[in-house]
Every structure is written in structure tokens, then in C-alpha cells.
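ok here's the first one, seq then C-alpha cells
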Amino acid sequence: MKPSHDSGANEQSLGTLLKRAEQAMLKSKTAALKPVGLTLAQFVALSELDTRPGLTAAALARACFVSPQATMILLKAMEQQGLIERRPHQRHTNVLEVHVTAAGREALHSGRMRIAPLDKRVIGSFSAKEARAFRAFLVAFINAVEPD
């Protein structure tokens, strides 16, 4: 039986518990993606680009909640790996759009297959009502801490 991680949970701040949950998820997803050869940042970027092809690096940075500098480093590595390609915009040739390559789509699909059981296990630990309430609590938490 797996040890419970709730010892002292009632005494910990919500921020601490949220950070612990985030770290546990990041660790699990990173481990799941390792055999695919993707980092979690690459997986997130590929997922976003799959949904919204042709994003600029700046738009991708905003969508992935990272700095433009971090995105440029990430995109350079992904381009070298053949996961993405950057092409000039049709009308604005000085603007580069980012597109997922066939190799990137294959890696993304493999990554999704490895992440899906983890997501299913997490969501499966809540009833439908609890999951809705948890989402609402997270939104309320975000709204409470984000500046106006």
C-alpha cells in the first residue's frame, strides 16, 4: 500500500499544499515523458502548437506561462530535434510562425499516451461533483491571488 501524503495537511497553508500538488504532478509527468524523449516544457509547447498552429514565439510563451527568453531556448532545441519548424508569416515576413513537424506530432501523440493514465488516475480520485468543486476552488484561488 502506498503511503499517504496527507500527514499534517490540515496544518499546511493552501499555498504549500498547492505547491506540493504541483511538484508531485510535475515529477510524475516528467517521468512519464522521459521514455518518449520529451521534457515537460516541450510537451506543453507541442500541445499548445497542436491546438493553435502558427503561433509566434511570444504568443507561445504567454500560452505556456514562461518567459520569452525561456521559449526561445526551448524552440531552438525543439527545432534542432526536428519537432518544430519556424516559417515566415505569409504577409509579415519578419514574423516567424511555429509549426509542429510530423516528428513533433508523433512525439506529442506518444507523450499523450504516457500522460493519459496519470491524468485519469488523478481525475479518478475525485467524484464528478468533487472535481467540479476542485476546479471552482482553484479558479477562486487564482482570482484571489492574481493582481487586478
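and now the second one, same deal
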Amino acid sequence: MDDAVRDYIDAIAPEHRPLFDRLHRRVLEAHPDAAVVLSYQLPTYKVGRRRLFVGVWKHGVSIYGWEQGRDGGFTARHPELKTTKGTIRLRPDDAAGIPDDEFRDLVRAALDGWSRRHRARSSATASTYRWVVSVGWCRASDSWRTRATVW
């Protein structure tokens, strides 16, 4: 964890720090390899190309940044929470009634690899295109150049 993230965490109001720490622990339990950096002025958990942002606001903690449908059913199981596309706002009282396993499952769904739906779309797309690779001598740089083109 870099110093900017540590400074952010140290500045969290005492009434929201336990909830932030609880979510932080759930992320690191689900993904011990997650890099924790500050991005968009928020602590951000990076696993491969996936990102999960956890930010503190005046009434609680918000979780941001997953693709639609990649919350593991969390928002459907908790309609009482204030949510928008890719965002969950948690007040400490609301979060107190949610088991840790629920948060761990949310983190796994948001940060794990491509879903079956994305894999199917990616393989269909890959088979539609043809790749052409050409190799040639470049006089300007006096070296071989490789170019890949998609049609």
C-alpha cells in the first residue's frame, strides 16, 4: 500500500473507519494479491485489469467500479441499500446487518476474471476477424519491423 492510500485511510472519520477497515479486510481476504493504490482520489484495489474503488463520504462508505451484472447478486439480495449502476452506498447501520461472506462474494464477483458471458463474446469476436502479420525491413530505422493488422 502506498503512502497516499495510507494518508487517505488515516484521515477517515472515526465513525466510518470500522466499516472501511471491514471492507478492506474482505477485499484482501478474497484477493491477497490485490494492489492497493489511490486512483481518482479513492483507495483502489487492482487485480489484473479489474478495479474496485472504496471511498468514504459523509454518511458512510461507497463501493464503486464493477461492470453491470458483476456484483454476484449482492444488490438483488439487498434492495434496501442505495445503489446505482456500479455503485453501492453503505451506511454503517445498513452494513452491520450484512454478513462478511456477502461482502467477500461481492468482491470476488467484481474482481475475478472474465465471466462466462464475456468469454463467449470474446471467442465469437476473435473467430470473426482475420489477423495479418507482415515483417519487413525499415530503411529509416535500419531494422526489421513487424506489423499486425486486423480485417
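notes on #2: The chain has two domains: 3-113, 125-151. The chain has six helices and eight strands.
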